[in-house]
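Repro:
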Amino acid sequence: MILSDADILRRLEEGDLVVEPLDDIDLQVQPASVDLRLGREFLEFQRTNIPCIHPNSESEVDEYVNETVVDPEGEFILHPGDFVLGTTKERVEIPADLIAHVEGRSSLGRLAVVVHATAGLCDPGYRGQITLELSNLGSAPVALTPGMRISQLTFTELKTPAERPYGSERGSKYQDQTGPQASKIQGDHEFSGDQK
């Protein structure tokens, strides 16, 4: 079952679902979603001459990623063909009986801006800000401003609560993240030699 605005507001009031800061409930809570705003931090991928990225090598990723922090009244220009990691202003806490889906807003989609390549899911038990995988598929640069509504979360209720929710007990790599986080795939079992 997908949560409606009434369900979302009830769960927020009860405190088992957290989206904070939620500064304008009337604007941000939609009929079946919550709009999330763009944060100020971005990770930009620099053009590089390395032949390829090896997922098991953390140093290679660090070599071609630069952090940019935009002034509160500033803007970040997303150029055609660019791929950057951004973050939501809001921090979320997803209870064990919900799964959250990160979606783009149609108004930005009509400007050819997409907010996720594949990471469109927040598992039950996830806590933290959400890293956005921002791309400009169009032919013109698009100015993104901190605080603008950039994405939306929809919530699906699970038939039963997750018995093994996302979190430190599972070794979840992105729990309690703040700001955009680069890939931590090198910590996956298939790369660490700790195969199960």
